[in-house]
Design goal:
heterodimer; A: Rossmann fold; Rossmann fold; 3 domains; six-stranded parallel β-sheet; 24 helices; B: alpha+beta; Alpha-Beta Plaits; five-stranded antiparallel β-sheet; 9 strands; binds flavin-adenine dinucleotide; binds thiamine diphosphate
Chain lengths: 585, 189
Amino acid sequence: MTRQMTGAQMVVQALIDQGVDTIFGYPGGAVLPIYDEIFQQTEIKHILVRHEQGATHAAEGYARATGKPGVVLVTSGPGATNAVTGLTDALMDSIPMIVLSGQVPTFMIGNDAFQEADTVGITRPCTKHNWLVKETDKLGDTIHQAFHVATNGRPGPVLVDIPKDVQFAKGSYVGPQQADTKHYAPRVKGDIDAITALAELMEKAQRPILYTGGGVINSGDAATQLLRELAKATGFPVTSTLMGLGCYPASGPQWLGMLGMHGLYEANMAMHDCDLMINIGARFDDRITGRVDAFSPKSKKAHIDIDPSSINKVIHVDIPIIGDVGHVLEDLLRIWKSRGRKTHKEGLAKWWTKIEEWRAVRCLSYKNSETVVKPQYALQRLEALTKDRKDRYITTEVGQHQMWAAQYLGFDEPNRWMTSGGLGTMGYGLPASVGVQVAHPDALVINVAGEASWLMNMQEMGTARQYDLPVKQFILNNERLGMVRQWQELLHANRYSHSWSEALPDFVKLAEAFGAKGIICSDPADLDDAIRDMLAHDGPVVFDCLVEKHENCFPMIPSGAAHNEMLMGDASTEDAIDTKGAVLV
Amino acid sequence: MSTLKIKKGTSKHSAYDLKDPNADIIETHTLTVIVTNEAGVLARVIGLFSGRGYNIESLTVAEIDHEGHTSRITIVTTGTPAVITQIKAQLGRMVPVHEVHDLTEEGPSVERELALFKVAGHGDKRVEALRLADIFRANVVDSTLESFVFEMTGTSEKIDAFADLMRPLGLQELARTGVAALARGPAET
Ligand SMILES: Cc1cc2nc3c(=O)[nH]c(=O)nc-3n(C[C@H](O)[C@H](O)[C@H](O)COP(=O)(O)OP(=O)(O)OC[C@H]3O[C@@H](n4cnc5c(N)ncnc54)[C@H](O)[C@@H]3O)c2cc1C
Ligand SMILES: Cc1ncc(C[n+]2csc(CCOP(=O)(O)OP(=O)(O)O)c2C)c(N)n1
């Protein structure tokens, strides 16, 4: 069944038919017909951001916190180019997002028209797919395809560029059922022979580890449940990447903490010494592998991933399994159970003894202070005062604070932790917290921030205020580009080139100027009360937590080093990175 | 979507032993990719190669099914075995890509290229050019009193060889189509 309507009406109709209730956007000349339709309806809530980059990160936060795709609407030219960072961020972190952009009318494309940009050209490498729609008759179909592509297989961002004349013209609209989506159908079921081979290895493994990642969260709640069941049934230890935090509960007995460059000692040592590594929805990122030729030299490796290009890209694996985590784990559990639920009990017991020794190193301990707030302490207190809140959602900016948040905050559920992992986008956290709070209006949403990152998209405080979103901006203010400063200390002989945050604003006044509450804290003795103050306030808060300026984030695997060559808190950092490591990032 | 032939359990070793032995082996592969013939599809494929630092030795593209809107892209590329595998996986995951075949790996295939050679000269050189063209079964598709345009179809090596011979005889311009290739025998359906 097709219906006649204008292109602008089709956009709104298609969003409604896709079950969208919220979009993030910013108007302009090339999307006015769509905004006119938005004005005349009530089913879709439009959140007016302050910058298109903010819209994309808000949509990412919304998507990660709900499991639904995030939707963004921007105008042509600068509206579209401002969305590029968010598109790239979503591509790197496999976040489903649909960006609809306005374009100059079809008959003006190529003429350097006002606010014309080659949006599909610019966004081709930073989207999973994109479309320029030149006929109104194809618009409905294309938008449905866009949702299909963004959410199926490895999720990712897509963009639909819609010229203004296409929005005005009438055409026939097709619904989601009639849309032509069949040719994009990534495989979700894993190869049974490979899964059986993995079950065999699991029976014999004496030093196994489950290396989980963002793919578990992408796969959905069922995958999380199956992972937990697998861990419980086998007794295998579990670690996770930055992107997978929460898929196995941090309070669970088999949790080793995050792995990787700033991961926990026990997690990295277990990865290095294991004899069976089961990668479930992670992508052997360079923050994980360190020196590739020294990565877990004694293990057999299995890799479950929906994207064939993730397999054998960085690390050669013995058992590749292409498929969706949920589907594969279901088969794996069934096969392993039907073969008698065997594990190498003795080997496992010894393995856990070894792991306990590593745990006893207590790699996250740090020297606390009575006079200055240590950033680690600030996060420990934040954790202590909020961990009972089942509805706690954390976003972060990028830098040391992000890593400390990953180390010191515990997540017992998936979709509670939104961070920019692959692209490492400073300025992600505040708009992401806005998106999360829009999705969960009554939840506790905290953005753990560094002052430098936070300034990159601070205009979104206006959005928070406008929509009464009580987001808490917990800024660990070290007056430094801390992560950069740390690398300069380790690599460039303390030459701190431009890694200061100078001329910082008064964050309390800034908060007040936005109509939010401002809190400042510099004394560890006041910290608990100040945090309670923040939590008690029914509205957005900017919390300026003045912390130790020169704290380094440990543990750390220096670039170019192996997993068992970690720098610990009290280690000497001189010459930690050799000249070969220095060229790496 | 294509199903990619990534061999499972190809090795009993871990990454530690495996990374290096293959790193220096550079192979040449001919890939054939069936894509939806939509706007920008060629830019997408080329962008993949430039963006990820892969090599393109030759690339040809043309629509092969007008009603089904599909085109065949034939790409000759070089790289280590791991890179070649990545290229195929990266092509396979693109939304408008229907099939990826590695003709070099999947059995015997035929590869052909068409080339046009403009050769100008007088006297002995002109006679010699014509004689060699005959031996190579090149056709004369244009001739003036001082020049010829030869047309030749063959493997890339044959075209290279003919070009080398024509150079001292007055080769002025050369146009090549790049490789088109098909697997031998009936198509799998
Ligand atoms: C300053 C900084 C420091 C960092 N340090 C660390 C660190 O110490 N440790 C760390 O872990 N990270 C760190 N990161 C993050 C790191 O850069 C990567 O983003 C992260 O490690 C990647 O996580 P992942 O492997 O889980 O993959 P993701 O990026 O989450 O990718 C998911 C993988 O799962 C697959 N997948 C998706 N959906 C499915 C499905 N349904 N079924 C099966 N497979 C699926 C995808 O194809 C992909 O291969 C850091 C980032 C920054 C900015
Ligand atoms: C947009 C962007 N520009 C530059 C960088 C490089 N970078 C990574 S961390 C960092 C410093 C972040 O400082 P801050 O937000 O204060 O956090 P801290 O490390 O001090 O906790 C910089 C500049 C980046 N990740 N993103």
